[in-house]
Amino acid sequence: VPKQNYKIENVTWNPMAEGVLTFTCNDCVVLYDVTSQEQKISINNHKDQIQSISWRDNGQVFVTSCKDKRLRIIDPRASSVVQETQGHDNIRDSRALWLGNKDMLCTTGFSRSREREVKVWDCRNFTSSVSTLGIDSNTGTLIPLYDADTGMLFLTGKGDSNIRYYEISEKDSTLTENNISRTEQVKGVGMVPKRALNVMEGEVDRLLLLTKQAIIPIPYIVPRKNYLEFHDDLFPDTASDEPGLSATAWFSGANGQRKLVSLNPQRKTAIGSRRGLGLQPGEVKEAGGGTSADVPVTNKTQPETSQVTNPSSPPASVPNTSPSATSQSPVHNRTDEEKAAEAISDDVTDEDKAEAEQREEVQKKVSARIFSGVRQCKFKHWKCKTLHRSTHIENIRKLDRTVPGESNFFVANKKRCVVPIEGSGGLLSVFELDKPGKLQDAGLPVLQHQSKATDYSWDPFSDNRLVVACDDAKIWVWDIPEGGLTETLTEPRGTLRGHMEKIYFVIFHPLARDIIVTSAYDFTVRIWDLSEMKEVLQLFVHPDQVFCAAWSPDGKYLCTVCKDGKVRIFNPRKSPNPVMEGPGPEGSRGARAVFVLEGNYLFISGFDKQSKRMVFMYDTGDLSKPLYEDSIDECPAILVPYYDEDSNTVFLSGRGDGQMYAYEVATEEPYLFPLATTKFPTASQAFSFLPKYLCNVKEVEFAKAYRLTQTSVEPVSFTVPRVRLEYFQDDLFPETRVTWEPTMTSKDWLAGSNRQPRTLSLQPKDMTLLSQAPKETPKVRKFESYNADTYKTDEQKKEELMSAMTNKLSKQEAPLPQDLAEGVDEDEWDD
User: Fold this and answer.
1) I need a labelling partner for 567 at 20 to 30 A (CA). Which of 142, 230, 452, 806 fits?
2) E-assigned strands of 169-224?
3) Per CATH, domain 544-682 is 2.130.10.10
4) Could you tell me where the Acidic residues compositional bias lies (predicted)?
């Protein structure tokens, strides 16, 4: 193709004529004849950059979508715009796709409110779309793929983690969503030709998905009772690989018709190795249109057996090279292919055989490791249930959603919860959980600060002490009176000052009383002793904002994730420098970390470079690279993790999300196992989980939390379905660590103590362990469902059928009705 003035954006082939290449450069469409190496047609009817182009299957016209938000149907041989209309309302990237040879188009783009949408158009009434469907608010352009034989439309976008499948109604041209398949993050997608499908297994379509590290096939299979026979209703005759006409004839104004072939393996012809006219063997086309001298094609490894076949000749049948087949064929009847195969086998050396055997042995080991068994997860099908409305706190007004993303936004303990409220002075409402119901419209008592509250946390060992961090670099320590707030409080029990910039998180130590850690925009991490109301330790090695911090379960180590893309683990009592450091999430929107599996591993949620939400699993002994990473979706809210150490489950939810994700963490590959997700009727602002001893183990409740919405606080219960609820499920509830009681004072911890918490059994006194329960005896069936007809052989059924038919056709000796009729005498006949 000659050099163009602008970058080539879109490239496609004419679906009817051979060798007609179409590409776009800025606002120009160019048609190029590959066989003659000539540029035939150039169309400049667009006013801005062309974003996409798609041919109709008859190869006569094509449609374009443009940055000027217009759709144009163009007849290239007449160099004229046949029809034109207003497309999507946003100038962002769009895609246009002609739906086979129908009078219908499909376009994807963005609405005026930046929402992704799909539109269906009728060419016979091109003034407006006949159907419009909003998808979501992701930023990736939706790529449409259409199968004309089945009418299936697939949609996915770059950066998406799912593929949507639709059907288009022939009557009213509406889109019907049939399925959404979750997959890895999409980089690109393509559709496999019909002739390559496995039709004898009901495969009607197959997509090839390009991800970050692999190409994944996504088959679409229609379930049938059996696949022994070819199903004609699923696979109509499809277009062959033969063109309808040549490029010369097409440019001259002729129109052709593609030949249809059957996909039935018993009827379809063998697929040959046909090549395009511009790619004939033995010829090399030069840019100037000339043909260089014929270059013989040789095979360096097999010079004696290499052959050049004529593409126009019928393909040779593939010989049967099995040992049984070759042993029975006489030598003088062997085909050329068999002789070639024998020659090749003679050239194989012992080293090649040894190498092949070694590869086969390695492959067997890998297969044995992969397919050794299916991993069982007891919490895979967990359920989340919102408790009755009578337990909700409702009518929350003016919820402040401007709290920084580094904050958990909502915190609760067994007695009360804290909710940020709009207003000057950093207002925080404290609600008593044992007083549910509808709140009054105004006049609620609050905690008032001198500046905006950026984060807050309950003392895990005291239900009355609350620590609040503010953007004036001050830390407020409150003691909530018993019974809750009765008036607005403005004077805390004490304040801490040390940071030079706005503080964005505060976290309590999991074991030591009165120890907290904070970080601010001065890039320092400071540890405080609330019993002395002073700063005791400081970490100052971070060159940028610290997104989060997390204590190890033993309270010895502190992990931080920084905006410079580094994960660091400190032993703060020994050194201000990290003991371990490695690369973290690449995104700059934020991150969260939590120690899992007794502190031996690190679970991190964050973003990649494309702002895709990701989760990572690290070995705390080696932070050089993550052990495993998985992409979730594309959303600006950071996923906040909560780890239940007894079930090894990590719950994930972001601010404004409508669903909650969950993973099981394990020490074996791939370390993260996705569990069931749950959806809520309204968007969740945040979750706050309660200690383990508050769970109702009799109902197999393994976690309990409060969910904050825009206007309410709702208790939610996480359970596992079980049958024998009368027994204590000791396989789900091991002895839990008592994390709601301190194991040491702040002075003990600062002196180097690492006293660990005791464990507690959650078994109620009136319940027996499930492991000690007697085995259930098979119940006697009240009504036996045995049916003798089910176990009869085919011969018995045939004999019974024949005897039944014979009984119905029994011989009758009675005279026929016409034999009893009396006629007239012969003399009564009158001529």
Assistant:
1) 452
2) 175-182, 188-191, 203-210, 215-221
3) yes
4) 344-354, 822-831
Q: Over the stretch 586-597, which tens digit does the pLDDT of each residue have?
A: 988 899 999 999
Cα-Cα end-to-end distance for the chain: 102
Q: Locate 678 and state its tokens.
A: 């749950």
User: What CA–CA distance (Å, rounded) separates 151 from 145?
Assistant: 10
The DSSP symbol for 126 reads T
Distance of CA 760 to the CA centre of its chain: 39
pLDDT at 641 (0 to 100):
96
CB 132 within 8 A of CB 116: no
Structure confidence at residue 633 (pLDDT): 86
Q: Are 690 and 662 in contact (CB under 8 A)?
A: no
Please give the residue that has the higher pLDDT: either 275 or 770. 770
Look up the pTM and report it.
Answer: 0.56
Beta strand segments in 44-136, E: 50-55, 62-66, 70-75, 80-86, 95-98, 104-110, 116-122, 131-134
Residue ranges covered by each domain of the chain: 8-246, 544-682
Q: Which three-class secondary structure string do you get for 318-353? A: CCCCCHHHHHHCCHHHCCHHHHHHHHHHHHCCHHHH
Task: Give the model confidence (pLDDT) of 397-437 as tens digits.
Answer: 999 999 999 999 999 999 999 999 998 889 999 999 999 99
Q: What is the mean pLDDT of residues 729-735?
A: 92
Contact between 501 and 524 under an 8 Å Cβ cutoff? The reply is no
By the 8 A CB rule, do 183 and 219 touch?
A: no
- Phi first, then psi: what are they for 290, rounded to 5°? -80, 170
- 561 closest CA partner among 514, 499, 649, 623: 623
Rg (CA), the chain: 37
Residue 492 CB coordination number (10 Å): 17
The token pair that represents 421 in the structure block: 């409220």
Task: Estimate to the nearest angstrom the gap between the alpha carbon of 112 and the chain centroid.
Answer: 27
Single-letter amino acid, residue 630 = D
Is the CATH number of domain 8-246 2.130.10.10? Answer: yes
Asked whether 167 and 158 are in contact (CB, 8 A), the reply is no
DSSP per position, 225-254: S--SS--TTT---EE-SS-SEEHHHHHTT-
